[in-house]
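User: Is it possible to get a 3D structure for a protein together with its bound compound? The compound here is adenosine monophosphate. I've pasted both below.
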Amino acid sequence: MSFRKIVILLGAPGAGKGTQARAIMRDLGIPQISTGDMLRDAIARKTQLGLAAKQKMEAGELVSDDIVNGIVADRIQEDDCRNGFILDGYPRTVQQAESFGGKMAGGDQLSVIEIAVDTAKLANRLMGRWLCSSCGDIYNVYSRTPKQEGVCDRCGGSLVHRSDDQEHLISERFRAYQAETYPLVEYYQQVGVYRQVNGSLPINQITDEILSLLQAHAPMTPASRGRDTKFA
Ligand code: AMP
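Assistant: Yes, that's possible. Here is the predicted structure of the complex:
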């Protein structure tokens, strides 16, 4: 029976979760699941889900656990997730981690990697970030500039700023991260699946480190931990 390789990328806003998820999915052959991208898409399409999430996202606050747990539960049922997936931006609360743990199966192999960056560096990073409006590729004036200004190297789409990458919302997003998401570091340390990379290194070096961490240590499975956990 094949098992699913599940990678959770943790890190503050701007730490590089999206950039790294997109880089490693090609090597691992499993898709990136970004709850932020799915919510932004729902808002753009004005779906019921989008309407429910819009106000919170525009305030830099977290969307309710029920909404995101639901979209992830549906997404991981899709066929492209049968060998695994990379979670980027989920879970973001202990409640979400517990909900997700309940959806894991016995043979699943879970790795949790925190991309650690000093938050003092992140506000500038976020304000210098550009996204491709067509394929979602991520650029930054400090670390990854497009060959032609305002144009995506990959697909030629136009580059835009994210509406929540503004100074007054960034502080709320960091507050939400510290208060609600950072406790997941300890949560996954206790489960025994947590590792960390230095997110201040050049992008390619971080990608190499993540890939070697994923190869070097066989990820824990509920069975290999030898105890009954929320992940069983
Ligand atoms: P991101 O693209 O991951 O930075 O997410 C952008 C915004 O989407 C966040 O500031 C939240 O408002 C919302 N969001 C994304 N993922 C989650 C999640 N797992 N739980 C709650 N809100 C989320």
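Strands lie at 5-10, 32-34, 84-88, 109-116, 129-132, 138-140, 159-160, 194-198. The first helix runs from residue 17 to 28.
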